[in-house]
Write a structure and sequence with these properties.
335 residues; elongated
Length: 335
């Protein structure tokens, strides 16, 4: 049968065959056939995820495909994806995904699919939890996969102490690159928003002299999300605002995060006003700052005065002026 006709038949089976034993059996047979090309195997694996929920024969076929070394990365990815749709609570499916995560030669995208699927089907499963924790501990993991591992772990075992400890240890490691530290900070934010150890580690990162501005920005952004009202966080962000060594982007993020966790914070508003009035701040940042002033405390008199002063200036662009007018209009509407 020509490839395009076979693919059309598969599509039709998906549309009409949900839960149908004959349709599932046909797709399983296609998956196990040596007479079709890799694209058909990949399509069949994906299709089983659409119609084979809870079907043991479909799960077994996908597990077999996942464990095969003779298939390409698309087949593995689709098998991992489909197991996440149809294998909820299935020990065999979970074990196969765990084995895939622990493989040394697995492609990043396939690893990310396996991590996502474990987050869907492995709630409370010790093997799944351990595998995701181990994945998070890998120092050379790419950003998307680390984030997915953190999200999945947060779903199946919220607040996992081992994972938090491992991430904090990574965050404090001198061998970590700035980009890796940003990834770890994001993961800490995802796994357990109110964790004191995570907050302390992010504050320490914020105060470190050996990190880049981009890493500080991510730490500031994460702190703005994970624990509103935390006094240690507020103090650290205020301190960051007062540093002359931080750039405009970082100062703006610190001010924005500070207002999230301590609404109306005068130090945050004052820092944004200072940025708005500075001749050394570039075009894009001034637009962002004008927008932020309109968001974080629309009724603040200092912010309104700064926007009015901006309107009266002769050396700002039309885009910045439009943003200032928009924010003043928002203020007027609220009064």
């Amino acid at each position: 049968m020509p490839v395009h006709i076979r693919w059309q038949v598969e599509k039709s089976l998906v549309e009409i065959g949900t839960g149908n034993q004959m349709a599932i059996a046909a797709l399983v047979q296609l998956l196990q056939s040596n007479d079709v090309d890799k694209n058909n195997h990949s399509n069949a694996a994906y299709s089983l995820g659409e119609i084979g929920t809870g079907n043991q024969m479909a799960i077994a076929a996908l597990v077999q495909l996942l464990q095969s070394n003779d298939v390409d990365k698309n087949n593995h990815s689709n098998a991992a994806y489909s197991l996440g749709k149809i294998g909820t609570g299935n020990e065999m499916a979970i074990a196969a995904l765990v084995q895939l995560l622990q493989s040394k030669d697995v492609h990043n995208y396939t690893c990310m699919e396996a991590a996502e699927s474990l987050g869907k089907i492995g709630t409370g499963n010790e093997k799944a939890i351990i595998a995701l924790v181990q994945l998070l501990q890998s120092p050379d993991l790419d950003r998307r996969t680390r984030r997915q591992a953190a999200e999945s772990l947060g779903k199946i075992d919220p607040g996992n102490k081992i994972a938090i400890a491992a991430l904090v240890q990574l965050l404090q490691s001198k061998d970590m690159s700035d980009s890796s530290r940003i990834q770890v900070a994001e993961s800490l934010e995802i796994i357990n928003p109110g964790n004191k150890i995570a907050i302390a580690a992010l504050v320490q990162l914020l105060q470190s002299k050996d990190v880049s501005n981009s890493t500080r920005r991510q730490a500031a952004e994460s702190l703005g999300k994970i624990d509103p009202g935390n006094e240690m966080t507020i103090a650290a962000l205020v301190q960051l605002l007062q540093l002359n060594s931080v750039d405009s982007d970082t100062r703006r993020q610190a001010a924005y995060s500070l207002d999230k966790i301590d609404p109306g914070n005068e130090m945050a508003i004052a820092a944004l006003v200072e940025l708005l009035q500075s001749p050394d701040v570039d075009y894009d940042i001034r637009i962002q700052v004008a927008e932020s002033l309109g968001i974080i405390d629309p009724d603040n008199k200092i912010a309104i005065a700064a926007l009015v002063q901006l309107l009266q200036s002769n050396d700002v662009s039309n885009s910045i002026l439009r943003q200032a007018v928009s924010n003043l209009g928002r203020n007027r509407h609220r009064q």
